[in-house]
Amino acid sequence: MNMPCFRIQQWGYGEGVEKTPIYISVMSAKELAKSEIDRWTKHNKSGYQRQPKETRFGTGRGSIVRYLIEEMGAFPTSVLLNVRGNIKYQPKTKINDFMDFGELTVSDDEKLYIIDGQHRIEAIKRATASQPELENYPLAVSILNYKDKFDEMLHFYIVNSRQKKIPTDLVFKQLQMMVDKAILGGKEWLKEVILGPKEERAAMATVIVDYLDEEQSSPFHGQIQYTGEPKEPHHLVKDYLLAFYLSFILREKALSGMSHAKLAQLYADYWSAIKEIYPNAFARADEYTLLKTTGVASYTYLFPTIFAYSAADGDLSKSRFKHYLSMLKERVVAKELPTDFQRPIDEGWWSSAHGPSIASATSQKVFHEISSNMTKKIEVVMEKMKTK
After folding, report:
1. Rounded CA gap, 6 and 26, in Å?
2. How many Cβ atoms from other residues are within 10 Å of residue 126's Cβ?
3. d(CA 6, CA 95)
4. What is the DSSP letter of 72?
5. How far apart are CA 98 and CA 22, in angstroms?
6. Is 235 within 8 Å of 222 (Cβ atoms)?
7. CB contact set of 144 (below 8 Å; sequence gap of 6+)
8. pTM
9. pLDDT for 356-383, tens place per residue?
């Protein structure tokens, strides 16, 4: 494929950054339909994009298809592409020190990967059903030639995170790859500009979730639903749900100094203890809220407390975690506890059909309230045990 184009040179001053040539041209929708998207799946963990949102292709207001068929239909911003293989560029006319005009040649064997613009391209493809001439629709394109897929993903992250919000479920996977690259690949500027403490915690949380899915001793082994995967009967919990709440508790000093592997094992043991206490909530997960947002958030927020008690005993084992967690199943009378927490927090408590309304709540405030009252209940039970 040969195309006339402008080549411009851009650069920054971050450590290890080199000049970036960008090739600006025009491609038809038909040509762009052959381009590919590197989507993240459980079997392609180095992918960095997700499936396009179907809501963008409806017939209502805000639909890109409607914008093409019934409205202005102009896309002034360019689609961003990358060629990971070799390209050839023949300059013809120099315009200034940073820009020239020439011809770009991309072999038919080379793939064009879409970094930004998949919704525009998909909308045009769908709109051709009623307007076949749209296959010749011209789109401005900016083409990069990064051989390393990480650089391609980094551009995706920067374009999306600084202009529009990327869905949380995929951001965590991208940050995991960035941390690895910053540590192992010499991209020092990533640590300062993109990878702050919050981002590093998100990356570590994702590593732990991968461990939970891959380790045979984990209660979630092979049962975590990853981003982009359809829900299957064997799935117990979503990956980003675990990672999201893990990232919050990793601020705890006692946890932040641990290795990924050690913390992942402890968290797996913790949930193994919970599984032994509430086996039906795992066996028939859809009937309980334990493995939905309310339960995952509440028990994850409780983890530092159970960890602290067990560490004080010098016993960070599953059986010790279970010792303290089992106290929640006690019935107590304590004025400092709401009625819902004085009753046993058993499988019935987490039942979608029969549990208290607070066990199905969906606000962060309530999640903290649940974990706080769980902590108080454990304290009440421990005090009661002392007086016996």
Report:
1. 10
2. 16
3. 9
4. -
5. 11
6. no
7. 20, 22, 23, 80, 81, 82, 83, 115, 151, 152, 155
8. 0.67
9. 999 999 899 999 999 999 999 999 999 9
